[in-house]
Amino acid sequence: MSLIRLLILITALNLSGCSPEDQSTTSNAGFAGLGQDADGFQHAEPHQLLTFPTDHVAHPDYRIEWWYLTANLEDNDGDPLGLQWTLFRQALMPPSERPAPTPWAADQLWMAHMAISQGEQHQVAERFGRSHSQAPLEHATGQPSRRNL
């Protein structure tokens, strides 16, 4: 009986020295990787000259950009109608690391949100897409200015 107690004691002591593997992971990447260094991407500069309508289209050499529209309208009865629409573009890698364009290669992610409110009613929708920066760009084009997802 004392041998069993000794084995139990040794087993208990061995197990007490074990600890579970740390399962938590922390990342400085932030939301959608935006906390990572932006090396390899162009950077917006404070005194950068903007040229419209040219600058209404996508700039694939920048890491992130978005188009935003809000409007306060009236319906046919004169009741107020609120509209909000946003299109986000997120580059997945700097231009120097991008793969060659193929039907499946994607180095840009797109996300669109839309909301319409009228009185107490509120309708929302969102869509997601992907593209390659060197492929024909369908999400944000210039003349005439067009955004879709």
UniProtKB/TrEMBL annotation:
Domain AttH: 64-134
Residue segments, region Disordered: 124-149
Database matches in SUPFAM superfamilies: AttH-like
Pfam families in UniProt: CrtC
Protein name, per record: AttH domain-containing protein
Source organism per UniProt: Vreelandella sulfidaeris
